[in-house]
Amino acid sequence: MNRAELRRAFDYMAIHIIAQMKPGNVGPGSVAYPPIPFEIQVRTIGQDAWASVSHYLHYKHETSFPPERLRDLYALSALFYLADVHFESLKAACVPPLQIEGAQAP
After folding, report:
1. Is residue 59 part of a domain?
2. Of 47, 53, 55, 64, which sits 20 to 30 A from 99 (CA to CA)?
3. Which run of H or of E encompasses 74?
4. Which domain holds residue 73?
5. Distance (Å, rounded) from C-alpha 66 to C-alpha 62?
6. Per-residue pLDDT tens for 66-99?
7. Does the residue 99 lie in any domain?
């Protein structure tokens, strides 16, 4: 795996949604929302922690981050990913699914 593939494999994995308000939607005081795009990020607790750590250590300082330490950075990313996977597995095994009134079971 080359460096670019390694980075993509262990980089930030949150879901990003670009949206904007529908024309005619109004806020407080009946002020119309302008059609300015905004971003919604959906991420797990582990992804949020990884985003904070990597942003602090690497994202804004990419040119000065020591290349010999990238392996450690990617290893940390993999650990956050594994924590997410295991937390989700534990949740599935221990927490009953949310029951929504009127919903049909699959």
Report:
1. yes
2. 47
3. helix 70-94
4. 3-94
5. 9
6. 778 878 878 888 888 888 888 888 888 887 776 6
7. no
In a domain, 101, yes or no: no
Question: Could you give the dihedral angle defined by the CA atoms of residues 104, 94, 41 and 30, in that order, rounded to the nearest 10 degrees?
Answer: 60
Contacts (Cβ under 8 Å, ≥6 apart) of 105: none
Burial of 100 (C-beta count, 10 Å sphere; 0-12/13-18/19+):
exposed
| pLDDT tens digits for range 11-27 | 657 788 999 888 777 77
- The total number of structural domains in the chain stands at 1
CA distance 35 to 62: 33
Residue that is written with structure tokens 């119309």 in the block:
32
Its pTM surpasses 0.70 = no
C-alpha distances (whole Å) from 62 to each of 8, 35, 57, 77, 90 are 15, 33, 9, 16, 35
Strand, coil or helix: 64: coil
